[in-house]
Amino acid sequence: MQNRVEKVKSVFPDKISVIWVVHSENLEQTIDNVKIAVENWLHWVFLINHGMPWEELMRIFKATREKFRDIWMWINLLDRDVTATMDAVWQLEASWSKVDWVWVDNPEINWVNPWYDNQDRIELLIEDIWWNWLYFWWVAFKYMEQPRDLWVACREWQKYLDVITTSWPGTWKSADIGKVKTIRELSDNHPIWLASWVDDSNLWEFAQFIDVAIVASSLIKKWEDWRNIRPEYFDPEKVKKLSEVAKEINKQ
């Protein structure tokens, strides 16, 4: 069996990769946004349902996958725990709609919440996820309760997650480079991903400590458009510049 680092590196072998987040509003908007990503070398996309029933996002994911069969796609069903998320993912897989990665907002692990008493079942479920998908959750992430001890958080999550994903406290702020560096040092060579205002101006700096940048709000034209509802709100020049910087970093 591959270890977690080998597993992620087999998908993302470059020094730095960029993942495009699509906050889905409808099918047409989602497909248009994914097309923008693919045209600019961002062949990894992440669909999430803000203000939309999770069942509708599943329908959009399936239809989008039919048009983009060769890219890597993941899904985040907001407010669904790991059991409910995996039930949905298995439904997609059964309908020949491949899901490459899984993100959950609630992994049901009692290290996070001691009230969870179903750990045997959850550990088996996570093991099954590990065999079939890449598995994500957050560490010291925006709008979430921050860990009291960052070293303990990084150590514990390496037992469960393929990727540690962190951010700054808010959507519209770049992460503190010192925090990212600390997480890198505490996590050894475990994959570190950053979801917090990465663009062409700071990717070089963050690339010293992260493996993947997850982008959305930093590439749109106006603050009001943070949910990326309409594809014309993305700034094509920003997308192009970020892609070019990533390519330069990977030449080093």
Keywords:
252 residues, alpha/beta, TIM Barrel, eight-stranded parallel barrel
Per CATH, what is the topology?
TIM Barrel
| CATH domain class name | Alpha Beta
| N-to-C series of helices and strands | HEHEHEHEHEHEHEHEH
Question: How many domains is the backbone divided into?
Answer: 1
Largest sheet: 8 strands, parallel, barrel
What separation lies between the terminal Cα atoms? 30 Å
Give me the count of strands. 8
The CATH H-level superfamily is Aldolase class I
Q: Number of helical runs?
A: 9
Arithmetic mean pLDDT = 81
Strand proportion, as a percent range, falls in: 5-15%
Widest sheet: strand ordering: 1-2-3-4-5-6-7-8
Segments where pLDDT lies below 50 for 5+ residues? none
User: What is the overall silhouette?
Assistant: globular
CATH architecture: Alpha-Beta Barrel
Rg, nearest Å: 17 Å
Which structural class matches the secondary elements? alpha/beta
Portion of residues within helices: 25-40%
Write the layout of secondary structure elements.
Elements: H1 4-11, E1 17-23, H2 27-39, E2 44-48, H3 54-67, E3 72-76, H4 82-94, E4 101-103, H5 119-132, E5 134-138, H6 150-157, E6 163-166, H7 177-186, E7 192-194, H8 203-206, E8 212-215, H9 236-251
Helix pairs in contact: 2-3
